[in-house]
């Protein structure tokens, strides 16, 4: 097996998440009261900050796992579009489904969406892997909705696990992939400028 180059967009995303752990999260976290009062950037930035270092480590480990499963990952422009879509989809979903939720921090909802996007995108190359990932994610969400396995994570990250963000991320990833925004361009579709 030959040497593989580091996936630069994935590495950049990991670095961004780690750097933002040093920033005051209170200015970036998702809070419905502040999002309603004009601080709309929180719809996106709340997904880039974490409750503590363990929370960040769990999300970085999840991102590394997704990258290991799908080493082709996404180039930076589609990755950026996908993450903005997922963050806004999750944030608006939380506003509708959990209007009493005082705040949210964490990348895990976007991570579930990203895993769904990559699984659907990878269906042509490895149906078994992609179907397995989608089934495992759906099963995980069912377990979380029943409250199974959340207590240890809640203690580790210092706050409640908002499983609804995971479910919204997963749904947002399926919708995003279903819109066909990640269809690779073929030479016939590209046009010279």
UniProtKB/TrEMBL annotation:
InterPro entries linked: Peptidase_S54_rhomboid_dom, Rhom-like_SP_proteobac, Rhomboid-like_sf
Superkingdom: Bacteria
Keyword Zinc: no
Main location (coarse class): membrane
E.C. no: 3.4.21.-
Entry's transmembrane regions: 51-70, 79-98, 104-121, 128-151, 163-182
SUPFAM superfamilies membership: Rhomboid-like (SSF144091)
Subcellular location: Membrane
Annotated Gene3D superfamilies: Rhomboid-like (1.20.1540.10)
The protein's name: Rhombosortase
């Amino acid at each position: 097996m030959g040497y593989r180059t580091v996936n630069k967009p994935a590495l950049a995303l990991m670095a961004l998440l780690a750097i933002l752990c040093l920033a005051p999260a209170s200015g970036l976290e998702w809070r419905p009261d502040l999002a309603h009062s004009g601080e709309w950037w929180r719809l996106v930035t709340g997904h880039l900050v974490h409750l503590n270092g363990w929370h960040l480590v769990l999300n970085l480990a999840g991102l590394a796992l997704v990258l290991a499963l799908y080493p082709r990952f996404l180039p930076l422009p589609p990755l950026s579009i996908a993450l903005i879509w997922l963050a806004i989809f999750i944030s608006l979903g939380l506003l509708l489904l959990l209007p009493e939720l005082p705040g949210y921090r964490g990348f895990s909802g976007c991570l579930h969406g990203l895993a769904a996007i990559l699984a659907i995108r990878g269906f042509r190359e490895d149906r078994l892997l992609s179907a397995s990932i989608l089934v495992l994610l759906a099963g995980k969400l069912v377990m979380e909705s029943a409250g199974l396995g959340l207590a240890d994570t809640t203690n580790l990250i210092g706050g409640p696990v908002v499983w609804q963000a995971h479910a919204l991320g997963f749904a947002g990833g399926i919708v995003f992939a279903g819109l066909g925004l990640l269809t690779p361009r073929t030479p016939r579709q590209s046009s010279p400028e």
